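Researcher: Let's do a round of design. I'm pasting the structure tokens now; please hold your answer until I've finished.
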């Protein structure tokens, strides 16, 4: 009888402890993940997505699409669960074709119970890929969404991803999320640099407008910037600096800069690791306050199953395709996430 009582007490203690962790708002996590060409199997008019159809060169069929959804959901299900058992409250994403594929993603069994809601406004990108945002409505209330068009002063025909701004309240606190996927390095880093400088100028303009609002909201700029934290576009144009000893409330700071300086990365190319996937915050998410969220820690989710285990690219991210070759992996990028505490 005594053993039964002790067992019952331990069960009750564990159950109530777990329940408290599930319901607590003391911690919240925010993530970003490049989904590496999350396309459906349909040929969309006016978009260059023919290769992601059953008849296209990648032979992209329903079975491969469903496996891709399963793999992406598996990774998302692991993000930040040590301190936030229900996973990130906010997940920025890129390389997704439309809102429907995000709807399919959030209905995967591994994350379905989180009730993620997708936000995506389709832009002019020639391939039809866009940025989006997933949010848990139990933690985040959307107040406003807006898509900002990126145009190039030197090329009026250039078509690339819009920048998505989602504003609302995260557990009662005002937040603004700016989701990015800046132009690629196609043609070389130097030749393509002006495109990312233009993208940085647009992002900086958005941030300045948000900082001028009276709500004093926290700002999170996230995305695949196709540049590292120390590149000109990030450090000089966007003015996202390493975190100093005394951050200023209305400046931008790169929470992923330290990871980069430690030699860590989110993607590999020709034997070199880059950290293109970054989480940049306004200084009021770093300063100490009696109340309110503050950045506690930043992570790259880098698990063995997310790396290739053999071959010439052993150790690289375990991606879905290598050219035309179907690998059935996850993404060519690792996700990043940060833990906030109040």
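Researcher: That's everything. Go ahead.
Model: Designed sequence:
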């Amino acid at each position: 009888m005594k053993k039964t009582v002790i067992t019952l007490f331990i069960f009750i203690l564990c159950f109530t402890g777990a329940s408290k962790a599930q319901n607590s708002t003391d911690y919240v996590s925010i993530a970003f993940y490049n989904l590496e060409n999350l396309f459906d199997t349909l040929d969309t008019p006016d978009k260059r997505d023919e290769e992601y159809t059953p008849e296209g060169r990648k032979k992209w069929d329903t079975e491969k699409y469903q496996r891709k959804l399963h793999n992406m959901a598996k990774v998302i299900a692991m993000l930040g669960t040590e301190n936030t058992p229900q996973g990130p409250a906010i997940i920025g994403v890129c390389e997704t074709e439309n809102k429907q594929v995000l709807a399919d993603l959030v209905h995967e069994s591994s994350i379905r119970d989180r009730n993620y809601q997708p936000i995506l406004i389709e832009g002019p990108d020639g391939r039809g890929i866009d940025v989006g945002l997933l949010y848990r409505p139990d933690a985040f209330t959307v107040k406003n969404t807006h898509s900002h068009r990126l145009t190039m002063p030197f090329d009026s025909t250039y078509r690339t991803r819009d920048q998505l701004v989602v504003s609302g309240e995260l557990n009662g606190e005002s937040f603004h999320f700016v989701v990015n996927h800046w132009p690629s390095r196609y043609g070389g880093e130097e030749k393509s640099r002006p495109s990312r400088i233009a993208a940085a100028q647009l992002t900086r303009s958005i941030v300045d407008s948000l900082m001028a609002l009276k709500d004093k909201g926290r700002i999170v700029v996230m995305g695949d910037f196709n540049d590292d934290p120390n590149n000109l576009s990030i450090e000089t144009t966007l003015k996202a600096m390493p975190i100093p000893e005394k951050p200023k409330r209305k400046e931008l700071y790169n929470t992923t800069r330290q990871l980069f300086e430690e030699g860590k990365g989110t993607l590999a190319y020709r034997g070199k690791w880059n950290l293109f996937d970054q989480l940049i915050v306004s200084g009021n998410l770093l300063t100490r306050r009696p109340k309110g969220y503050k950045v506690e820690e930043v992570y790259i989710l880098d698990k063995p199953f997310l790396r290739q285990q053999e071959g010439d690219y052993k150790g690289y991210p375990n991606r879905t395709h290598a050219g035309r070759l179907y690998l059935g992996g996850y993404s060519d990028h690792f996700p990043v996430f940060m833990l906030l505490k109040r």
